[in-house]
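Supplementary Methods, section 5.1.

A reviewer requested that the exact input to the structure prediction be made available. We therefore reproduce it here, unchanged from the version used in the analyses.
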Amino acid sequence: MALSKIMKLNVGGTYDVLTIAEQMTNLKAFVYVSTAYLMHWKTPVEEKVYKTTIEPLDALETFQKMPQEWLDSVTKKILEEHPNTYEYSKRMAENLVESFKDQLPVCIVRPATILAACKEPFPGWNETSASISQYHQLLFTGAYQTVLVNPKTRTHITPVDYTVNTILAAACRRGTFSDSGFVVYNCVPKRDNNILNEQIVKWGFETTHKESNSVMRYIKYPAFSTSEFIFQLKNQIYLMLCSFSQNSWRSETGKA
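The structure derived from this sequence is encoded token-by-token as follows.
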């Protein structure tokens, strides 16, 4: 997303909520849900706010005033070690939240990639329409023949019920103990508890297709590639074959 738009959402929106919270006379806790992915992947993300070189509201105002083509031309330089505009804006928002620590009982929770529930309300529960969930839905149902990822790399996953429980615990601690102060909580798996990408695909696909016959499971089971060209080519061929097969079936059955 364009830097000006994501900053308006994540920084401007957060500021609006903080200013509303200031008017609440009996507010016990304000928990900001951030992300564990707000720095370069080589940077260990400790439980602290990473200061920015420009104040969040100043950055927001500047980016809103700049012509879009100018901002697009310098976005890469602005991001520096940040992988994308989303993560940059979340780091900015964290700085903004921390600036209110003397006025409001604020704290921050940083989950990793949020996916389906581990236990509550039941294993696999997921009702979100977030892009990562939509992607996995398409992947597990066989819409992709090839996945653009290294199967041996690991993914940091936080089940949605773990995320919610952490938020509730953070709110309880911040609101109950007056000396708890401003705290950042990383809600992420340990280094030895990260999941291989091939395991995510295996578990999700096999669960989704457990009632399918073995031939269909074999045909639809996605492959892996780290090449953008191979990824695009194999999926395009796969979609063409599926379309041809469907059209042939319609012709044979006489169905429109």
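The CA atoms of residues 1 and 197 lie 25 Å apart. These observations are discussed further in the main text.
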